Amino acid sequence: MFGLFNTVPSISVTELQERVKNTIHLLDVRTPGEYRSGHILKAKNVPLNKIDDYKGSLTEDVYVICQSGMRSKKAAKILQKKGYNVVNIRGGMSQWTGQIRGGK
Q1: Where would I find the Rhodanese domain in this sequence (predicted)?
Q2: What is the mean pLDDT of the chain?
């Protein structure tokens, strides 16, 4: 069992579909190429290798998504250590059935 500081809260893509109806901070940590091939409308591309440079609000939840949920979990742990309230998206884009857009 993990200690309190090792666990990152997570939600399903179904729950995310409800939450994106409101204003949320959603980071897509896939590569720029993957992001351009299709991403969630409100998602900002911050590739995993650049996640350390992310500067956002420490008072608002940050949602993190990747292709399957592995990279987003890594990114979430990094952000959590920096003091962010992070929520990982289980299943990632491979399970997302909502609208996506291509390009930047």
Answers
A1: 20-101
A2: 92
